[in-house]
Amino acid sequence: MRPLQMAPQARRNGKPSAGAGGARGKRVVILASHFHSVIAQSLIDGARRTLADAGIRSRDVRVLQVPGAFELPVMAVRAARSRPRPDAIIALGALIRGETPQYDVIAHAVAQGLTHVSVTTGIPISFGVIVATTLAQAQARAGGSEGNRGVEAAAAALAVWQSLAAIR
């Protein structure tokens, strides 16, 4: 699977942008599950780099860690209600299949929970949670041969801002 390709209008000078108004002044909360801490840090680094390339100041990016992916939705609700209100939330983490069906239950609950928070608060939430069968697959998607889901999630947040601005 190839990394997310941003629409041409969502890139400026080869770097992600949030459209004509840019991303300067946008506030972002990055939520990261630290259960697989090395993978999580790679995702965080990729997201921060992408946001910085788009003009978002580091002081406007807040990184909060949670114990595991299951805790992402409840933290997303709290972050969405915080002041100043974020313009987007980027949820990052890794779920790796184990020997029990718990993986499937958690993956579904996290995706559904984050979707619910986004729809009910109106704040875009980018899903940068790697759902993989093996550790090697997760590593490949956290800055390895298959790209970086943190980069993709940040790029998605930028693209959503651009789309929302177009319908105002």
Strand content: 15-25%
Assigned CATH superfamily: Lumazine/riboflavin synthase
CATH architecture: 3-Layer(aba) Sandwich
Mean pLDDT: 87
Largest beta-sheet characterization:
4 strands, parallel
Q: Oligomeric state of the chains? A: single chain
Query: What is the CATH T-level topology?
Result: Rossmann fold
Range of helix content: 40-55%
Question: What report would you give on this structure?
Answer:
It is built from 5 helices and 8 strands; from the N terminus they run βββαβαβαβαββα. It has 168 residues and is α/β, with parallel strands linked by helices. It has a single domain (26-166), classed as 3-Layer(aba) Sandwich (Rossmann fold), CATH 3.40.50. It has a 4-stranded parallel sheet, with helices on both faces. A two-stranded antiparallel sheet has the order 1-2. It is globular.
Relevant terms:
Rossmann fold, two-stranded antiparallel ribbon, alpha/beta, 168 residues, 42% helix, 23% strand, 5 helices, globular
Question: What is the element layout, followed by pairings?
Answer:
Layout: E1 11-12, E2 15-16, E3 28-33, H1 37-53, E4 61-66, H2 72-81, E5 88-96, H3 102-121, E6 125-132, H4 135-140, E7 142-144, E8 147-148, H5 149-166
Parallel strand pairs: 3-4, 3-5, 5-6
Antiparallel strand pairs: 1-2, 7-8
Short structural summary:
Helix content is 42%, strand content 23%. The chain has 168 residues and is α/β, with parallel strands linked by helices.
